[in-house]
Amino acid sequence: MAGTEGSPVVIVGAGVAGLSCARALAEGGRRALVLDRAHGVGGRCATRALEGQPVDYGAVFLHGRDPAFLAALDAVPATRLDWPADVHGSGPPCQPEAFSPGEVRRAFAEGVNAFPRHLAEGLELRLQRKVVGLVPGDGTVALRLDDGSFLETEIAVLALAAEQADELLATVLPAPPAVAAARALLATASSHCALALLAAYGPAAPRPPWHVSYPETSRIVQLVSHESSKRPGSPLLVLTYQAHPAWSRQHLDDPDWPRHVLDEAARLLGPWAADPRTAHPHRWRWARTDLAAELARPLLLALPGGARLGVAGDRFAPGGGIEAAWRSGRALAGRILAGEGA
Fold first, then answer.
1. Which residue among 106, 156, 200, 250 sits deepest, i.e. has the most Cβ atoms within 10 Å of its Cβ?
2. Helices (H), the chain
3. What is the pLDDT of residues 41-90, one digit of tens each?
4. Which pTM does this prediction carry?
């Protein structure tokens, strides 16, 4: 194992919580290294191209009211949209507070992934690196990667879904009291899963007159995002369907779930919706946190031997969602920079 002199804070997870933590540490003069098992950054701020058009399929828009968070969104070098402006249906939104008075809603024509990509600029990243274990040492914690290598640091941060963070904390053996308490806290609630289906239709498909629909009569589809409305002039109609959490959990491993979603889309929108010319399914096993499990601030644990271990994510700041993830990452960076727990 390499020595830790001048070692960076190692952050596991390149979603918004991990990136905002790394960005705040860098602004405070502390080196940070971000690891993620994925090919790119952003986590649930996910955008992909479907027939050449950007399509959001995790968070389809961002929202918040914290002036610092809104300023961070305004700093993104992308085409900013006050979206959604036209909302259809009275079904339950994924996050009801998104439409509460005083809440600001934002999207980007280039996709919501423009935000985490902006946060990641200039940071030290290592993608396609999966951390599978934690080994505390004398003043250090070693992160074990799936290729058998180790990375030592004095401070590690888990910016992951609660279930993923707990899986790594379970590898700290024997578990010190701080880790056991953290695991008990994480176990008090679980993340919602979500099935998302991206669908592109030909030029003849009718264009919905709304930006987002929350069907009140469906037990399958919670949200339909009219993605083409973010990109005027697109020759295609592109929609993102997201299923209700309960239905998603029941069908997470059902290979036929996309067909069920399209059949429901036909019932809601018309027969044409059952037959997209291109479709791409995605399973979010940990889509978002149950707001009933919200905590006031991120965790910063002192390990035997003197190393520190932080835990951040959308559960560790008020409100949930991307804004909470961003706030928790920055709050944890502030505690690290202040030397808390050292």
1. 156
2. 16-27, 67-74, 114-120, 162-169, 177-186, 245-250, 257-269, 321-337
3. 999 999 999 999 999 999 999 999 999 999 999 999 999 999 999 999 99
4. 0.95
